[in-house]
Amino acid sequence: MKNLIIIFIIMMPLLVLSQYTNKATGDWGTGTNWDGNISPPLTSGKKLNDDVTVIQSTTITHSGDLEVQAGTTLSVDGELIITGNITFKNGAIVVVSSTGILNILSSGGNANNSTNITIDGQLVISDDFTAGNGSTIIGSGGVTIGGTTSGSGTIFGENTGCSGCSFGATLSINLISFKTEEYNNLNHLTWIVACQVNNNYYTIYKSYDNYNWVDIAQIDGEGTTNRIIEYRWCDEKNIYGTLYYKLRQTDYDGNYEEFPSISHTTRDPNAKREIINKINLLGTEVKDEYRGFSINIYHDGGYKKTYRR
């Protein structure tokens, strides 16, 4: 009986560690980035035989190739970067959630009859991709392939056999907000992005009438990532009055997306303010000759308390 207990205790960690979930951003091979402080092992340096989950808002990078073996589940809720090639073997289960990005910096392939690949987020293949006979990729997300696709398999029900193509809803960026605030008479523009795919750069446009636009700045993008990133830029050429700003995002392939304009008004502190109403402290409208405390209400929404004897 004692021998059986010892064997069971020894085997327990092995059973637990057949599933690996990361807890931080970093390299695949760094144990402290994973629950249990042990990284998922790879047979021959590339074959994945254990279930792995990459959690949301984190990025794990594996340097080299990756083969997801039959019976193995790879779940990507954050971003998983593979610097080499990736292969989905027949019987492998790969799920990229709506918040996930599987970013392959080289080539990829879905083996013959591999049908358990679901992309609800983004799958990005920088180079070529082979869709094996009878293979399928399904989901509500997007697949972007920088090189050439081949094979008789399908992606979201579409046949492969194209070069530099996209399938499904490939979102360049997920823009959370775009706003401007004034500090020290300068306009500070801020925009927050939840995820980016093949994002080369941003262009800021400026207008005085919300019709005629001039580009005034270009800011580098972050390529492909699902990290929430805040960008900032300061317009030092401010004026009194209303200005309009517009944001454009451009991919590496030259495609771009523009977002609705925003406006900002800077008022001249020395300009005469028009009084549109005058009230007493009880809120009753009074005339200009009113004696005592009163409140001037201005056309720009401001107000000032005054006293007349």
Summarize the structure.
With 309 residues, this protein is mostly beta strands. 5% of the residues lie in helices and 53% in strands. Residues 4-16 have low confidence and may be disordered.
Layout of strands and helices, then pairs:
Elements: H1 2-16, E1 19-21, E2 26-27, E3 42-43, E4 47-48, E5 51-54, E6 59-62, E7 66-68, E8 73-76, E9 79-82, E10 86-88, E11 93-96, E12 101-104, E13 108-110, E14 117-119, E15 122-125, E16 129-131, E17 136-138, E18 142-150, E19 154-155, E20 158-159, E21 163-168, E22 173-183, E23 186-207, E24 214-225, E25 229-235, E26 241-251, E27 256-258, E28 262-266, E29 275-280, E30 292-298, E31 303-308
Parallel strand pairs: 1-5, 2-6, 4-7, 5-8, 6-9, 7-10, 8-11, 9-12, 10-13, 11-14, 12-15, 13-16, 14-17, 15-18, 16-18, 17-19
Antiparallel strand pairs: 3-4, 18-21, 19-20, 22-23, 23-24, 23-25, 23-26, 26-27, 26-28, 29-30, 30-31
| Unreliable stretches | 4-16
Query: How would you describe the shape?
Result: elongated
Radius of gyration, whole Å: 29 Å
- Kindly state the number of beta strands: 31
Strand content: over 45%
Number of helices: 1
Portion in helices: under 10%
Q: N- to C-terminal separation?
A: 102 Å
Largest sheet: 13 strands, mixed
The assigned structural class equals mainly beta
> Can you tell me the number of structural domains?
3
Overall mean confidence score, pLDDT: 87
